[in-house]
């Protein structure tokens, strides 16, 4: 009897010991192990990022409509909230002058528009022109004849609305612009092929661009080519870039490359006694040249390449042919998101008894005209055809009207917002999926600042402050890219799970098996005891 | 009166304004001129038959550009100067940059002095402009960019192998900047040089490898040699002897030694075609001078070797303290190429003998075991009666812990006290040891520098992938002004062959020589790399065994059990059971 009770208390003590060891392991051991082997992950604003993922953009632009004297009747005039009715310069003979004088009248902030409504009888605009778009942020709109008398101001405004909308689409942004800016992010319905090609031509938005002009001279034995690139850049390119300064930083350099060959052999066309490059083979021209161009060692901004190719004496003159086998007048082509190439024939300089090498001075006005046009295309300054009845002012000396800059800023801001949003959401997704990645505090900070800038940019877009919106969107892009490409994200990424388990098993296996076995035994004993008790009761 | 005074002062004001305007204008025009200043390109090949029967070919390409990277104006329009290097100079405010990649070791005793010395592996030293504030950060970025340009692993340069020598590396260009805070020096003795380093180097040449001397640079021949070294040196130089304006000079050099037995199958006969598998047909059309020099000093009457085709042009140049005579082939003259329109120089040997170089050095590690050792550096002065001072620079990685109190310098069995010692101790994992000293070498003597060290144990992730190969210690650098037999030319702007104008010469009686010793290969104690896992397994087993027995003690209950009956008793019991008798 004594031995039995002793045995029973012993067994009871053993069970308690096993249970308490299991409890210690579960309550102390497991959390300790978890804490010490955990990767550090700073807090990220996940909710705000998820909100960004389905973002609704709302753009608004300020439009000011000014009625000239003679367009509103006195009773209509009373209802106009503020007295903005002005007399339009009576002595102006051309719309250009009117545009300039109106600009001096009021300086409009970027992103906004002023539409001047002028009477039908005005001789300011030519007969068949209803809308004139100036070089600044102004437009002149001729009022229709039927609106002269007996209508309320509301009706007048309702009549003007579609016209003003049209003006807005030309001068600020249209649906196609915005979809083009989003084309990289949003899957478009397979629509107009040409508009897709247009949207893919321009460089993607970036905080800076490097513009490189390269003179390719494959035959320095025959030609000694000189170009005044410095003067030409100052005269032709710099004004445009100064105007574009709010958009991005530009840096310009130039180089001369000798013995740089094109990738294809031009074909001899005996009927024209000239060498020709077909439009099909143009795609193969760039690759071998590209290897010589060299990347910019000092920055990581995208590079716009402009190449001037002087063909060697044996393959000269060289002409580029288009799809219809016609000579291209400018003798130049551009490659989307890469740059432009112009062929400059110099066989006219040889003369009857030329001594090689021939000294050649390049006509920079001709070359820069082509490069400037290509630069406008590659930067995304679109010159889509205006709707009928519209007259667009000729280009000013800077090569870019204020409203064209605004257009560019609208689409760039939208593109920046879209890019930054994609970067941030995909980063958040990646971090969510791979639990091994360490998130340091500085990354969390970059992510939060990107999110804040994005929200600010969206808010400014809604409020119509274009300048601030662009600024914030640029900051958002910078912060998001810095977070995404931070090298510290990669540190523990390649520590595979199987190796981790291989290290833990020698400790875990011998510790856990006895605990589990004794727990099982306790459970089975308890069950047996209950069965016995039941049998006794029965 | 007052009114008059006022008008006068206005007048002065206007005058001043006009003056300032004009100044600004002139300055702007100058700046614009600067951007498109004249540039000039020269190329040169020197061939020197060596006494061992090997042949030494040294290419030099020099681009001089009258521009100024140091002032504020931005240089961005390039013609002959490569754009990638120009951008590096302006972005990182570099005053002077010297980079070399070398495969093989220059055997000074057999081959004499090279025109441009370089240590095995990669070497980079840079003087920054004094406008740079964060020199270490700029240095780090610069090495990363250069490793991209030259396809080399220069990104492995970090604080543990970078030193700031106080005396050994003076600027080679103009500028008397001597504050060594702006100097950084690093070597990577492990770096292996191959085709991928040669291609970007050739791309920096204006003619590429399409014309001129560079057509000879075929990698399959160049790397089938005993020694190959390519370098880029950028420095500001004087435009004229008055030195009022500066130009920037880019020198690209390539030195190669072809082996007698390997490349020539033991025949003492060399030709351009045999060496480079190419002949020359034209000079680079952009070069203002393009010449080949053949060293015929030891061969005045043609008794040792003969050169064909013969050339009437001879030139003398003072190089490395010796007046040498050269046959010159001017590639810009059409007559050089003869009727076959190609030039294939042929050199045939007859006999040979050897001139000992005045200064050379060697180095080795002594000692046994994996705990301590001793570095021995031997410097030979072979001058019969002149003693001269040398600067010795040693940069030793931190994992060899130098015992600087064991430093001894002995020549001819006597203690030789260095007159200047600059020692910077290492910091673990941060910076290497730097030892610089000025030692006087007595005539016709061997000076031995020894220092003991202890090998450190590294952390297991700090070992290289092949740790049993050993760890490299970069070459020591010995810089010296060696007394010259003939008067040296001190005018740096006079027209001279390129190979004789690399190191600036300040006095006539001596010339500058830099000698590199062999790099060392030191074994460090290497652990068994499966050790961490073994340790984990072992400790886990010990813990598990201890834990298991403890667990058993705590949870099991023990009771005495009757010993089981013996075998005989059991058999007896079975029999008794069969008989129906109660068991025992």
UniProtKB/TrEMBL annotation, chain A:
Subcellular localization, as worded in the UniProt entry: Endoplasmic reticulum membrane
Q: What is its main location?
A: endoplasmic reticulum
Q: How does it sit in the membrane?
A: Multi-pass membrane protein
- InterPro entries from the UniProt entry: PtdIno-glycan_biosynth_class_S
Task: Identify the pathway.
Answer: Glycolipid biosynthesis; glycosylphosphatidylinositol-anchor biosynthesis
Q: Which UniProt keywords apply?
A: Endoplasmic reticulum, Glycoprotein, GPI-anchor biosynthesis, Membrane, Transmembrane, Transmembrane helix
Kindly list the GO CC terms recorded for this protein: GPI-anchor transamidase complex
| GO BP annotations, alphabetical order | attachment of GPI anchor to protein; GPI anchor biosynthetic process
Q: Is Lipoprotein set as a keyword in this record?
A: no
Q: Where is the signal peptide?
A: none
Span-the-membrane segments of this chain are: 16-34, 501-523
Which family, according to UniProt? Belongs to the PIGS family.
Identify this protein by name.
Answer: Phosphatidylinositol glycan anchor biosynthesis, class S
TrEMBL record, chain B:
> What's the protein name?
Phosphatidylinositol glycan anchor biosynthesis, class T
Is Metal-binding a UniProt keyword of this protein? Answer: no
Q: Which residues cross the membrane?
A: 7-29
Cite a single GO BP annotation. attachment of GPI anchor to protein
PANTHER family, A to Z: GPI TRANSAMIDASE COMPONENT PIG-T, GPI TRANSAMIDASE COMPONENT PIG-T-RELATED
Extract the Pfam families matched here.
Answer: Gpi16
What's the source species for this entry? Dicentrarchus labrax (European seabass)
Q: Which InterPro entries match?
A: PIG-T
Instruction: Establish whether keyword Membrane is in the entry.
Output: yes
Q: Which residues form a coiled coil?
A: none
């Amino acid at each position: 009897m004594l031995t039995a009770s002793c045995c029973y208390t012993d067994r009871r003590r053993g069970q308690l010991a096993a249970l308490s060891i299991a409890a210690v392991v579960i309550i102390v051991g497991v959390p300790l192990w978890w804490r010490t082997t955990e990767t550090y992950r700073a807090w990220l604003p996940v909710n705000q990022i998820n909100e960004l993922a389905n973002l609704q953009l709302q753009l608004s632009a300020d439009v000011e409509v000014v009625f000239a004297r003679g367009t509103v009747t006195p009773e209509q005039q009373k209802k106009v909230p503020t007295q903005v009715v002005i007399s339009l310069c009576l002595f102006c003979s051309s719309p250009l002058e009117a545009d300039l004088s109106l600009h001096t009248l009021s300086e409009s902030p970027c992103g906004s528009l002023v539409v001047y409504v002028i009477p039908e009888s005005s001789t300011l605009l030519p007969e068949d022109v209803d809308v004139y778009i100036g070089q600044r942020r102004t437009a002149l709109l001729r009022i229709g004849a039927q609106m002269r008398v007996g209508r309320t101001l509301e009706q007048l405004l309702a009549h003007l609305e579609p016209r003003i909308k049209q003006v807005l689409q030309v001068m600020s942004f249209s649906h196609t612009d915005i979809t083009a800016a989003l084309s990289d992010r949003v899957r478009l319905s397979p629509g107009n092929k040409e508009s897709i090609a247009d949207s893919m031509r321009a460089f993607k938005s970036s905080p800076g661009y490097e513009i490189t002009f390269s003179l390719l001279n494959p035959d320095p034995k025959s030609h000694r080519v000189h170009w005044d690139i410095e003067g030409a850049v100052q005269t032709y390119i710099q004004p445009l870039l100064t105007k574009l300064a709010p958009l991005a930083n530009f840096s310009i350099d130039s180089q001369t490359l000798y013995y740089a060959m094109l990738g294809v052999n031009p074909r001899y066309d005996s009927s024209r006694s000239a060498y020709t490059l077909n439009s099909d083979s143009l795609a193969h021209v760039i690759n071998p040249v590209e290897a010589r161009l060299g990347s910019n060692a000092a920055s990581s901004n995208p590079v716009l390449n402009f190449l001037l190719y002087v063909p060697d004496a044996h393959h000269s003159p060289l002409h580029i042919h288009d799809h219809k086998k016609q000579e291209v007048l400018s003798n130049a082509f551009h490659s989307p998101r890469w740059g432009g190439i112009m062929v400059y024939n110099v066989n006219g300089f040889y003369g009857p008894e030329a001594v090689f090498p021939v000294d050649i001075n390049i006509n920079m006005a001709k070359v820069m005209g082509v490069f400037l046009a290509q630069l406008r295309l590659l930067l995304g300054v679109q010159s889509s055809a205006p709707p009928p009845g519209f007259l667009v002012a000729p280009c000013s000396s800077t090569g870019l009207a204020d409203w064209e800059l605004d257009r560019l800023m609208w689409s760039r801001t939208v593109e920046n917002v879209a890019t930054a949003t994609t970067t941030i959401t995909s980063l958040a997704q990646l971090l969510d999926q791979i639990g091994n990645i360490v998130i340091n505090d500085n990354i969390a900070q970059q992510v939060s600042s990107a999110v804040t800038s994005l929200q600010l940019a969206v808010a400014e877009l809604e409020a119509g402050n274009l300048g601030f919106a662009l600024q914030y969107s640029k900051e958002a892009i910078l912060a998001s890219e810095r977070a995404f490409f931070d090298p510290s994200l990669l540190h523990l990424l390649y520590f595979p799970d199987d190796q981790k388990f291989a290290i833990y098993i020698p400790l875990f296996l011998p510790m856990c098996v006895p605990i589990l076995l004794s727990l099982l035994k306790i459970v089975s004993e308890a069950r047996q005891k209950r069965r016995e008790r039941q049998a006794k009761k029965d | 009166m007052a009114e008059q005074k006022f008008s006068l002062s206005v007048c002065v004001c206007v005058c001043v304004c006009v003056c300032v305007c004009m100044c600004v204008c002139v300055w702007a025009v100058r700046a614009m001129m600067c951007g498109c200043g004249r540039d000039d390109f020269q190329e040169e090949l020197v061939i020197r038959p060596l006494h061992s029967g090997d042949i030494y070919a040294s290419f030099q390409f020099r681009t001089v550009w009258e521009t100024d990277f140091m002032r504020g104006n931005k240089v961005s329009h390039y013609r002959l100067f490569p754009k990638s290097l120009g951008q590096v100079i302006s972005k990182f405010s570099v005053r002077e940059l010297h980079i070399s990649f070398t495969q093989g070791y220059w055997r000074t005793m057999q081959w004499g002095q090279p025109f441009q010395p370089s240590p095995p592996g990669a070497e980079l030293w840079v003087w920054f402009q004094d406008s740079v504030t964060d020199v270490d950060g700029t240095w780090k970025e610069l090495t990363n960019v250069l490793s991209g340009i030259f396809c080399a692993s220069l990104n492995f340069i970090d604080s543990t192998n970078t030193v700031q020598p106080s005396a050994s590396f003076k600027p080679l260009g103009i500028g008397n900047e001597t504050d060594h805070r702006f100097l950084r020096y690093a070597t990577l003795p492990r770096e292996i040089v191959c085709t991928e380093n040669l291609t970007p180097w050739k791309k920096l040449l204006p003619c590429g490898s399409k014309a001129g001397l560079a057509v000879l640079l075929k990698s399959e021949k160049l790397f089938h040699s005993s020694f190959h070294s390519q370098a880029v040196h950028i420095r500001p130089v004087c435009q004229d002897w008055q030195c009022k304006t500066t130009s920037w000079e880019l020198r690209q050099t390539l030195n190669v030694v072809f082996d007698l037995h390997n490349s020539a199958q033991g025949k003492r006969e060399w030709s351009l075609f045999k060496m480079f598998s190419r002949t020359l047909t034209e000079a680079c059309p952009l070069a203002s001078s393009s010449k080949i020099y053949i060293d015929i000093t030891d061969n005045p009457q043609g008794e040792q070797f003969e050169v064909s085709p013969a050339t009437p042009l001879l030139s003398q140049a003072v190089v490395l303290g010796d007046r040498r005579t050269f046959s010159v082939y001017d590639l810009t003259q059409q007559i050089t190429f003869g009727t076959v329109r190609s030039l294939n120089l042929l050199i045939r040997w007859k006999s040979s003998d050897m001139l000992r170089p005045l200064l050379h050095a060697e180095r080795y590690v002594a000692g046994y075991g994996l705990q301590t050792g001793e570095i021995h550096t031997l410097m030979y002065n072979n001058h019969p009666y002149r003693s001269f001072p040398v600067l010795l620079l040693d940069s030793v990685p931190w994992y060899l812990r130098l015992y600087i109190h064991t430093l001894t310098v002995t020549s001819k069995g006597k203690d030789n006290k260095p007159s200047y010692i600059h020692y910077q101790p290492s910091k673990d994992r941060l910076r290497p040891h730097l030892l610089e000293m000025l030692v006087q070498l007595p005539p016709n003597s061997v000076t031995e520098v020894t220092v003991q060290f202890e090998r450190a144990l590294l952390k297991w992730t700090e070992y290289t992938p092949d740790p049993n190969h050993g760890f490299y210690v970069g070459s020591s650098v010995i810089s010296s002004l060696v007394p010259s037999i003939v008067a040296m030319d001190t005018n740096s702007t006079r027209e001279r062959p390129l190979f004789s104008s690399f190191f600036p010469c300040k006095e006539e009686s001596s010339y500058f020589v830099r000698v590199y010793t062999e790099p060392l290969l030191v074994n460090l104690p290497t652990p068994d790399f499966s050790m961490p896992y073994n340790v984990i397994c072992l400790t886990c087993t010990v813990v598990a065994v201890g834990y298991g027995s403890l667990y058993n003690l705590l949870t099991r209950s023990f009771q005495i059990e009757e010993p089981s009956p013996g075998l005989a008793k059991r058999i007896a019991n079975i029999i008794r059971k069969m008989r129906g008798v109660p068991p025992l």
